[in-house]
Structure formats: structure tokens, C-alpha cells
Amino acid sequence: MRKMQGGRDEIIRIQNDIRRPSGQWSKYVAKFLVFLHENGFDKAPKFIRFMDNGDELVSYVEGNVENELSYDLMKSDKVLISAAKLLREYHDVSSQYIQLLTGDETWMLAVKDPVEVMCHGDFAPYNTAMIGKKAVGIIDFDTLHPGNRLWDIAYALYRWVPMVDNKNTGCLNNPGYILKRIGVFMDAYRYKKISYGEIIECIIERLEYLVEFMISKAEDGDKQFIRNITDGHHIVYHNDIEDLRIFLSTVK
Predict the structure, then answer these.
(1) pTM for the model
(2) Secondary structure letter of residue 64 according to DSSP
């Protein structure tokens, strides 16, 4: 057994399986993972079983997972296109699951209307298996919830373009470059025509929701989110929201 690189201490690889802690939403995520594989999407973990202690056992998804992309990968349009196509493929399959929902399910994140797909909720490099410059798998479905495509795309753009500035790189100081990267992703995803302003506004809304969610969970005593707040994760998001508002004024 070994702890997964970049993962939480509680997530352990056992040969070709992954043991991970479960939550109130896990049985609903498990049903969804079964659905994905039954409908031909094998680029996600396969649910195996719940263990006696309540942990869930899922299959290991082959590929490299990095907390942050290397400079070479981060700048690569091939990587960006690959991620967009993988998300589109996932969304198209997950859209078929909407008709199976009863409304009695429990999800970590709130349902986002209008519901079109099952949002992954955290489609970022640290939850994506890669081989070379190709995104080949999606992991960690704890944040799964019904929502719309743009809601999921918004957070993906924030992480993959990227627009997160946790190392003070000034990544939003080159509007032309950022807009080009957004365009590359949206074209590869084959999303309907939409203005850059609408996209940035959705990213801001998505990050505002995330900050509110983190603070609420920490106030409720969730240890993971208490650590996140203590480590200042919400401050990074706050700063990025302010930078994105300035950026938005340049593209409207």
C-alpha cells in the first residue's frame, strides 16, 4: 500500500485499486461510476465495493497526475485541447444520466440549474490522468453534482488556461494570450457561441460559490475545509476573483 502522490493521506493505492474515504454522497457517486462504464466511458475509476470500514474501493486510472502542470505542459495547446475533448466526451455520456435522477440524491455541491450534465465539479490537472500531453482519465468524483456544461467548464478554464495566480505569476496580465487559450479550449470542447465576457462572469460566479462553500463547511466543523481556510486557500480565490473582475473590464 502507498499514499497517492499529491493526494490526501487517506487515499491509498493497493496494487491496481484505490482505497478512499467515503461521504454521504459516495453511494450516489458509485452508481454514477457504474453507469459511466456501462455506457462506454472507461476513463474514470470503476467502482468496486464499499469496504467494511466504510471506505470505497475503486480502480486505479493509469496515467500521471500532477498537482500543478509543469511549465511545458501548462503552455501546450495540445494539453488544453486534450483536456477540453475529454471533458466534452465525459459530459456527453453523463448527460444521459440526468433522466435517471430521482431528486433524492445527496451531493457535496449544490445542483446548478439549468441541469444538462453531471458536473465533475473539480476538473483540474490534479484530477486528470495524463500520458505525455494527452489527458486520458478523470479521477476524484467527490464533487459530482447535476448542473450545466458552462458551470463545469468555468472551473476547468480557471485551472487549465490557467487563470489561477497562486504563485503571483501575473497570469492575467496578457489578455490576448488568455483569450486565445479560452478560445482554444471552447473550440475543442465544441461549445455553442458565447462571448468572452459571459465566460469570465461565469468563472467569477463559480469561484465566489466555492469560497462561500469552503467557509460554510469550515464553520460546520469539517476538518478538511478548516485546514483549507487555515492554509489561506480562500484568500487565493478571493485575490483571483478581484483580478478576474479587472480582467473582465478589459474584454467587455
Answers:
(1) 0.93
(2) B
